[in-house]
Amino acid sequence: xxxxxxxxxxxxxxxxxxxxxxxxxxxxxxxxxxxxxxxxxxxxxxxxxxxxxxxxxxxxxxxxxxxxxxxxxxxxxxxxxxxxxxxxxxxxxxxxxxxxxxxxxxxxxxxxxxxxxxxxxxxxxxxxxxxxxxxxxxxxxxxxxxxxxxxxxxxxxxxxxxxxxxxxxxxxxxxxxxxxxxxxxxxxxxxxxxxxxxxxxxxxxxxxxxxxxxxxxxxxxxxxxxxxxxxxxxxxxxxxxxxxxxxxxxxxxxxxxxxxxxxxxxxxxxxxxxxxxxxxxxxxxxxxxxxxxxxxxxxxxxxxxxxxxxxxxxxxxxxxxxxxxxxxxxxxxxxxxxxxxxxxxxxxxxxxxxxxxxxxxxxxxxxxxxxxxxxxxxxxxxxxxxxxxxxxxxxxxxxxxxxxxxxxxxxxxxxxxxxxxxxxxxxxxxxxxx
Length: 434
Known about the structure:
Layout: H1 3-8, H2 14-31, H3 51-68, E1 71-75, E2 78-82, H4 87-108, H5 130-139, H6 141-163, H7 167-172, H8 174-188, H9 199-205, E3 220-229, E4 236-237, H10 245-250, E5 273-276, E6 290-295, E7 298-300, E8 303-307, E9 311-316, E10 322-326, E11 334-338, E12 344-348, E13 356-360, E14 363-373, E15 378-380, E16 386-393, E17 395-403, E18 407-415, E19 420-427
Parallel strand pairs: 3-19, 6-9, 8-14
Antiparallel strand pairs: 1-2, 1-4, 3-16, 5-15, 5-17, 6-7, 9-12, 10-11, 10-13, 13-14, 17-18
């Protein structure tokens, strides 16, 4: 349904219409005191919950459960279709769909605040503060209404699909639901493109190499290891490329899979970031950038490592727009678009608390994880599960492995001069696909 057609349809939104009629009646009562109904018969709207409360308690959980209800999973044994099958499955989804549809009426209620007084953004610099979001809504309430009614439209289709018990319709319309959410987010949550930090100023701040740096030491060895997954590897989701017609075009006739778990039949596990723990002399950042490509509607590679002060370079190799949003818990905060093919944007990395997660706001399946460390003793496991860390000073260490699904494992390793130490990691299997 087009926007113009949906807005002109008098039966478009029963709940929204009820609120509009209520507002007209109230406004008319204010202008004509003689016609005001008895106060005891006039409903009084006193919204207690904030927009943030409704999002966290109703909108987000309901939308996620509806989205997750239908999926195609690729496993080593073949394709599995996740579908609601029992009366209980459909009844649970019906409750979620009702909650999602009716939440739009609550969001439109006059007088509702964005957030409680004193609430601050969890990611200042990449997300607007609640007061800024409130100002945007107050300045242009019609835009807020349009976004909310777009969510209603998408949610109503999902409710209809659930009432019809049509799993295919539920799957096919997941894209518009996600799009309605993201359009709103891009206006009110993170609308401004925050430019990457200046490369020169950050690189100058990186510590100079010190005497005894590992590259110059004679008493260095290496660490070679392997990562595997015990048991049967979980499957990975087939991506709903129909959310973006241009992505869908790229994969015409084929299925695109988001490889969250890149494991083979023997359990060899790729995309595990491995690093030494502990304090090391500060290292100079390599001059060569770490390249992450936006390629066929994915970030490639999915997991990389970089030294603090090194440039992380984003390339767009696709004939469509992408977005780069750094979800940093500390200082690597950026959010910018790459709307044209061939674009290259560098970001110089500051110290990070944990793995840096970067996503594309336009395509929810596009994710990349960056291990940002202050030393060069790290590696990422390859398709065979193998990794190697070179030029490690002799000594005893704790070594850590990180995987986006399976978490962190640690081990002890002793490196001897001129020798290669061996260390293996094994994750327990049996995790469900995301």
